[in-house]
Amino acid sequence: MPPEPLSVAAFGQARATLIPTESFVTNQILVTKLGEKMRKQRGFSLIELLIVVAIILIIAAIAIPNLLRARMAANESSAVASVRTVTTGEITYQTAYPTVGYATNLLQLGGALGAACVPSSASACLIDSVLANNGNPAGGGKSGYSFTTGTGAVAGGTNIGYTIKGIPLSINQTGIRAFCAEEDAVIRVDPAGVCSATEAGIQGFNPLNQ
Fold first, then answer.
1. Domain assignment of residue 170, given as a range
2. Which of 32, 60, 127, 172 has its CA 20 to 30 A from that of 142?
3. pLDDT digit string (tens) for 137-170?
């Protein structure tokens, strides 16, 4: 009778079959292959998992601040464009309604949210309704900034001045700098993110890109 194969238990689960008629080298190969198979099934060790987590945390620590700075830079560019839109709208409004002068609030330059805009001195339809209402929903801000206008100088019942400023909704999160302008239409910047609501106060800040 041929000799029966001998079975060797490995870790109490799988078994490696050793064939007495085969050489020692053959049996050793069988045991080695069994060990390799079990190592593959074992998965990651705790050390390996900790290394992967540490690498992910390092990448996040580098990437997240860069993403935040990029978002704030984009918000600031949008704020500058919005202030410029308002200054252009104010000039057009003053030309269209000379007896009124400049608009004293954003709604006069635009119109209501979700409604057809009919041009008038109360809603001139010169800027988009989102900017005119300082966001959608109204008052929520636009692209991380809040925009407000103010009344400038008044002469003979006519508004001969105005102010517009855009400030970050959350300094160092949605933006860093504030931007403002008055009737000279020069956009000025406040590095502290506050700016001013008066003509004299706005003139105290440096023009953008200076």
1. 49-97+144-203
2. 60
3. 999 999 999 999 988 899 999 999 999 999 999 9
- Is residue 105 included in any domain, yes or no? no
Tell me which residue has tokens 């410029």: 84
Q: Among candidates 93, 134, 94, 126, which has minimal Cα distance to 110?
A: 126
**Tokens describing residue 92:** 């057009």
Check pLDDT > 70 for residue 68. yes
Listed in sequence order, the residues at least 6 apart from 165 whose beta carbon sits closer than 8 Å to its beta carbon are 83, 147, 148, 150, 178, 179, 180, 181, 195, 196, 197, 202
Nearby residues of 197 by Cβ (< 8 Å), 6 or more positions away: 148, 150, 163, 165
Q: Would you say 175 and 72 are in contact if contact means Cβ atoms under 8 Å apart?
A: yes
181 inside domain: yes
29 and 79 housed in the same domain = no
pLDDT > 70 in the chain, percent: 80
Instruction: Give which of 118, 121, 128, 151 is closest to 82, Cα–Cα.
Output: 128
**Model pLDDT, residue 150:** 86
Cα–Cα distance, 85 to 156 (Å, whole number): 27
Sign, CA torsion 90/96/100/105: negative
In a domain, 176, yes or no: yes
Which residue's entry shows tokens 């390996």?
Answer: 48
Structure confidence by residue, pLDDT tens digits, 98-130: 999 999 999 999 999 999 999 999 999 999 999
- pTM over 0.70? The answer is yes
